[in-house]
Amino acid sequence: MAVHESSDVLIDELYETTHQLRQFVEIRLRAGGASVARLRALRMLARAERPLRMRDLSELTGVAARTTTSIVDSMERDGLVERVRHPHDRRAFLLRLTDEGLRCHREAEEVDRRALAEATAALDADDRAQLRALLAHIRKATA
Question: Which of 69, 75, 90, 143 is deepest in the core (most CB within 10 A)?
Answer without folding.
Answer: 75
